[in-house]
Amino acid sequence: MPIYLDHNATTPLDPAVLEAMLPFLREQHGNASSRHEPGTVARRAVERAREQVAAAVGAQASQVVFTSGGTEANNLFVKGAAGMRRVQQAIVGAAEHPCVIEPVRDLARGGWTVRELAADARGVYDLRDLDRALASSTGLVCAMLAHNETGVLQPVADLAQRARAAGAWMHADAVQALGKIPVDIVALGVHSMSLSAHKLGGPKGAGALVLDKRIELRPLLHGGGHESGMRSGTENVPAIVGFGAACERVPSRLAAQERHCRALRDDLDARLRALGAVVFGEGAARLPNTTFFAIEGLDGETLVIELDRAGYCVASGSACSSHSTEPSATLLAMGVDPALARCAVRVSLGPENTAGQVAGFTQALGAVVGRLRSLAAMVA
Ligand code: PLP
């Protein structure tokens, strides 16, 4: 089995989550909208999961709108909020995930003014830039809690405080944060937050938008009025149950997992530096499990393929855009030279990874680097 070091792309399904889901994949096939017994069982399971998801982020169950994942949750907020506000200004972090930045950019077609928040060399948004951009006409501000590539954490509570003071709605993409660091919607002071089950040991195909009850969004999907009218479509009961079970496991595991991953990641960073790598986002607060690095002159895609051959699964950028040969937009927003950005490789650790695997990975990387360098010297 290859060694999996790509947990920001997706995580293995937690066996306890699978156990919780199995009855709803086998015998409990009811539609949660049906009035009969199987329907009632499904409804109860969905409402229990709603409570579990809400509890994981310090929210009320009634604030949770289940979606198909993080992409849909982010689109629901951006398009749904824009649909309820008069045409205004939207402010979005320049390093946001494409499923936030693209819908925000798309608002420009409807007459909105779109302003992108600059990131500094560490990848952190500049609060002064937000102060300069905020105006009485600002309707929305979007910034992520933790970056999928660099792992860099954004000062979301400070951004939210400023956005609120200006009368704007603040949305945080918390997809990469939940399960890795504490997430509390009240402490952050955001109006809404997106989550995704498959990033924390849950199944693919479930996520949520957690929403301040005082704000109303225009739904993306119209139909039977599921999810209090916010997201029509028969609920994906097994996936929602799995999402709830994954969320329920967060509090009891978070501290140990954070400690475990941070120790491995710090060791990894030290080993990478010894190989001459540049680690992006160093100096900023980062997710404990993530490192994004480059070895000058060695293409990131090539390294990922060579490392895969050596039995290690890593990424050259965000999985959602890994078929693209463009350098990471986030690194470009941080002012990284495009040639160096093309060399970027991401390692994202999980609870099952070990110190031995990290050592084995850096050994394999060292061997690949040596081989590629001698090949390059031969053709030069
Ligand atoms: N937001 C961030 C920060 C992500 O990393 C991802 C996925 O990689 C998403 C949103 C999209 O989530 P999903 O895969 O559930 O659509």
Record keyword descriptors for this entry.
alpha/beta, globular, three-stranded antiparallel sheet, 13 helices, Aspartate Aminotransferase, domain 1, about 375 residues, seven-stranded mixed sheet, Aspartate Aminotransferase, domain 2, binds pyridoxal-5'-phosphate, about 40% helix, single chain
Instruction: Look up the CATH topology of the largest domain.
Output: Aspartate Aminotransferase, domain 2
- CATH architecture group name of the largest domain: 3-Layer(aba) Sandwich
Query: Number of DSSP strands?
Result: 12
Give a list of the ligands.
Answer: pyridoxal-5'-phosphate
Span from first to last CA? Answer: 37 Å
Question: Whole-number average pLDDT?
Answer: 95
Q: Could you say which structural class the secondary elements and strand pairing correspond to?
A: alpha/beta
What count of helical segments does DSSP give? 13
Write a compact overview of the structure shown.
The chain is of the alpha/beta class and 380 residues long.
General description of the model:
Strands 2-8-7-6-5-3-4 form a seven-stranded mixed β-sheet, sandwiched between helices. A three-stranded antiparallel β-sheet has the order 9-10-12. It has a two-stranded parallel ribbon with strand order 1-11. It starts with a strand and ends with a helix. It has helices spanning 15-25, 37-56, 70-82, 98-107, 127-133, 156-165, 185-188, 237-248, 250-274, 300-309, 329-333, 338-341, 355-379, and strands spanning 3-4, 64-67, 89-93, 113-117, 138-144, 169-173, 192-196, 207-211, 278-280, 290-294, 312-313, 344-348. The relative contact order is 0.16. Residues 318-322 have low confidence and may be disordered. Helix 2 (37-56) packs parallel to helix 8 and helix 9 (250-274) packs parallel to helix 13. Helices cover 41% and strands 14% of the residues. Helix 7 links the parallel strand 6 and strand 7 (192-196). The chain is α/β, with parallel strands linked by helices and 380 residues long. The chain has two domains: 3-10 and 254-379, Aspartate Aminotransferase, domain 1 (Alpha-Beta Complex); 15-250, Type I PLP-dependent aspartate aminotransferase-like (Major domain) (Aspartate Aminotransferase, domain 2, 3-Layer(aba) Sandwich), CATH 3.40.640.10. Bound molecules: pyridoxal-5'-phosphate. Pyridoxal-5'-phosphate binds at residues 69-71, 74, 97, 99, 144, 148, 173, 175-176, 196, 207, 318-320.
